[in-house]
Amino acid sequence: MVLHVALTVTSGLGSVLVAVIFAAFGILTVTILLVMEGLSAFLHALRLHWVEFQNKFYKGSGYKFTPLSFSNLMNK
C-alpha cells in the first residue's frame, strides 16, 4: 500500500521513487521502534524509582488480614 504510488509510475523515475519511499518508510519504522523502546525503558526505570522510594515510608502498622468466611459471620 505504501509503495503503490511508486509502483504505478511507468517511467524510469519509478525505480527512484520506489527507493525514496522505501527508505522513508524504513526510517519512519525504525524511528517509531526506537521511541517505543526508549519509552519502555524510561517507564520501567521510573516505576522502579517510585517503588524503591515509596518503600522507605512503609510502616507495617494495622491489623492482620482475615479472609471472608460466611461461617464466622453467622457465628457473630
Automatic annotation (TrEMBL):
UniProt keyword terms in alphabetical order: Hydrogen ion transport, Ion transport, Membrane, Transmembrane, Transmembrane helix, Transport
Transmembrane regions: 12-36
GO MF term list: ATPase binding; proton-transporting ATPase activity, rotational mechanism
A Pfam match: V_ATPase_I
Compartments, as annotated in UniProt: Membrane
Cellular-component GO terms for this entry: plasma membrane; proton-transporting V-type ATPase, V0 domain; vacuolar proton-transporting V-type ATPase complex
Membrane topology term: Multi-pass membrane protein
Transmembrane helix keyword on record: yes
Record flagged with keyword Membrane: yes
GO BP, sorted A to Z: vacuolar acidification
Domain of life the protein comes from: Eukaryota
Predominant location category: membrane
InterPro entries listed in its UniProt record: V-ATPase_116kDa_su
Purpose of the protein: Essential component of the vacuolar proton pump (V-ATPase), a multimeric enzyme that catalyzes the translocation of protons across the membranes. Required for assembly and activity of the V-ATPase.
Similarity comment: family membership: Belongs to the V-ATPase 116 kDa subunit family.
Name of protein: V-type proton ATPase subunit a
Species name: Synaphobranchus kaupii (Kaup's arrowtooth eel)
